[in-house]
């Protein structure tokens, strides 16, 4: 079974600073995707960044980047130059890429509530 | 059009009522999902439809009845619900081929329907 663990229920950071959210996962699959989703109080789940397991290069999207350590099964999210609009619940998630019973299913961590303060 | 549209945004119903939630997407995605989300918790998978056929039912009580009339539309029919069923119900669709292999893994989420059962 796939499990995703986020060990930080809450974090806070001052505007313009950098913050890192942690995520570890457990799987026997070799071909998969990892995601960070953001859910602000407006409640829509928004994809922040995606990593394909077979790619060694860490994904980046503007101020968001990941540190993907496949052997350690670790997938942390770094937010640079934090903005007030980054305040949200952040979910780490896993999806199996290959054929199988878990195909297309998204497994979520419990989430980290990030607060950016002025 | 890169949207998943859910209606209604808010729904209040009694335990004897029958109501439906609706989800629509016009991105040509062939896998669609219903998730249930309680406050400050990750989404929990309820149902998955692939090519208009029910592929996954996560042992959801029969008072929730999904329906996929066509590839763009997903309904969730509600009957004889309990107060503990009050939650945010999220619909999502999956980009990329779903049979055989997930090509991109990106789920597009709607804004959700906030359900309150009295």
Summarize it:
Chain A is mostly beta strands. Helix content of chain A is 0%, strand content 52%.
Describe this structure in words.
The complex is a heterodimer of chains A (118) and B (118). Chain A is mainly beta. In chain A, strands 2, 5, 6, 10, 11 and 12 form a six-stranded mixed beta sheet that branches. Chain A has a four-stranded antiparallel beta sheet with strand order 3-9-8-7, with no helix packed on it. In chain A, strands 1-4 form a two-stranded antiparallel ribbon. The relative contact order of chain A is 0.34. Chain A is 0% helix and 52% strand. Chain A is globular and about 45 Å long. In chain B, a hairpin with a 2-residue loop joins β5 and β6 (53-57). Chain B is globular, with a radius of gyration of 14 Å. Helix content of chain B is 0%, strand content 55%. By secondary structure, chain B is mainly beta. At the A-B interface, β6 and β10 of A face β5 and β9 of B.
Arithmetic mean of pLDDT of chain B: 91
Distance between the termini of chain A: 41 Å
Give the tally of β-strands of chain B.
11
Q: What proportion of the residues of chain A form beta strands (DSSP E)?
A: over 45%
Helix content of chain A: under 10%
Oligomer: heterodimer
**So how many helices of chain B?**
0
Strand content of chain B: over 45%
What does the main sheet of chain A amount to?
6 strands, mixed
Features:
heterodimer; A: mainly beta; six-stranded mixed beta sheet; four-stranded antiparallel beta sheet; globular; B: 118 residues; mainly beta; seven-stranded mixed beta sheet; 11 strands; 55% strand
List the helices and strands and how they pair.
The complex is a heterodimer of chains A (118) and B (118).
Chain A: E1 3-5, E2 10-14, E3 19-21, E4 24-26, E5 32-39, E6 46-52, E7 60-61, E8 64-69, E9 74-79, E10 88-96, E11 106-108, E12 112-117
Chain B: E1 4-7, E2 10-13, E3 18-25, E4 31-37, E5 44-50, E6 53-57, E7 64-70, E8 73-79, E9 87-94, E10 107-109, E11 113-117
Parallel strand pairs in B: 2-11
Antiparallel strand pairs in B: 1-3, 3-8, 4-5, 4-9, 5-6, 7-8, 9-10, 9-11
């Amino acid at each position: 079974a796939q499990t995703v663990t986020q060990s930080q229920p809450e974090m806070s950071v001052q505007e313009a600073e950098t913050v890192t959210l942690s995520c570890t996962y457990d799987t026997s699959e070799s071909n998969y995707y990892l995601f960070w989703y953001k859910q602000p109080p407006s409640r829509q789940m928004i994809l922040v960044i995606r990593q394909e397991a077979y790619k060694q290069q860490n994904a980046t999207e503007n101020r968001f980047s990941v540190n993907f350590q496949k052997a350690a099964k670790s997938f942390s999210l770094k937010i640079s130059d934090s903005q007030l609009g980054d305040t949200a619940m952040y979910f780490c998630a896993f999806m199996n890429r290959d054929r199988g019973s878990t195909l297309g299913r998204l497994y979520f961590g419990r989430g980290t509530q990030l607060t950016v303060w002025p | 059009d890169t949207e998943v549209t859910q209606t209604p945004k808010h729904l209040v119903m009694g335990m004897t009522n029958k109501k439906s939630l609706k989800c629509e997407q016009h991105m040509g995605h062939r896998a669609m999902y219903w998730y249930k989300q309680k406050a400050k918790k990750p989404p929990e998978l309820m149902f998955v439809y692939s090519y208009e056929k029910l592929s996954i039912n996560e042992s959801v009580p029969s008072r929730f009845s999904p329906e996929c009339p066509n590839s763009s539309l997903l309904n969730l029919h509600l009957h004889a619900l309990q107060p503990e069923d009050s939650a945010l119900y999220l619909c999502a669709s999956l980009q990329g081929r779903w049979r055989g292999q997930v090509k991109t893994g990106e789920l597009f989420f709607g804004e959700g329907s906030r359900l309150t059962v009295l």
